[in-house]
Amino acid sequence: MPAAPPATGSDDAVVLERRTQRVQPPQMYQVVLLNDDFTPMEFVVQVIQEYFSKDRETATQIMLKIHLEGKGVCGVYSRDVASTKVDQVLQAARSAGHPLQCLSEPVE
Ligand code: TYC
Fold first, then answer.
1. What is the pLDDT of residue 18?
2. How far is CA 15 from CA 5, 8, 18, in A?
3. What residues contact 43, with CB distance under 8 A and at least 6 apart?
4. What pLDDT, on the 0 to 100 scale, is given for residue 14?
5. Which amino acid residue places its CA nearest to atom 13 of ligand 1?
């Protein structure tokens, strides 16, 4: 039996263009605490530990950065998780009678 002729490329094969990227990664949001003159340092450290899962030393460093520089990032999350963190922090601060401010903003 004779061998099949070599492929010529003239049949009905379809070549798909390679896409460099199909989807973008989701936008991430950083949760920021703002400084004020009234919220106790200890309360802020506890909030950072509890809601942002930081150890005491890291939480203290973040709190001091906020105290000295006016604001600081406590964590980076998807939009819904960031929004929930903001709600939780504001609820805890209001319940304790502190004016602590917290917001989330898109990263970059
Ligand atoms: N500045 C506050 C004080 O001196 C402490 C503080 C730190 C408040 C961080 C808010 O997000 C904050 N008691």
1. 75
2. 21, 15, 9
3. 93, 96, 98, 100
4. 84
5. 40
Residue type, 72: G
Are 41 and 67 spatial neighbours (Cβ–Cβ below 8 Å)? yes
- Helix (H) or strand (E) run with residue 44 in it: helix 41-52
- Between CA 71 and CA 64 the distance in angstroms is 10
Residue segments in the chain with a per-residue pLDDT below the cut of 70 = 1-11
Domains and CATH numbers, the chain: 38-106 (3.30.1390.10)
Candidate of 34, 36, 42 to mutate for ligand 1, largest count of ligand atoms within 8 Å of Cβ: 36
**Residue 62 CA, ligand 1 centroid: distance in Å:** 11
In whole angstroms, give the CA distance from residue 80 to residue 72: 20
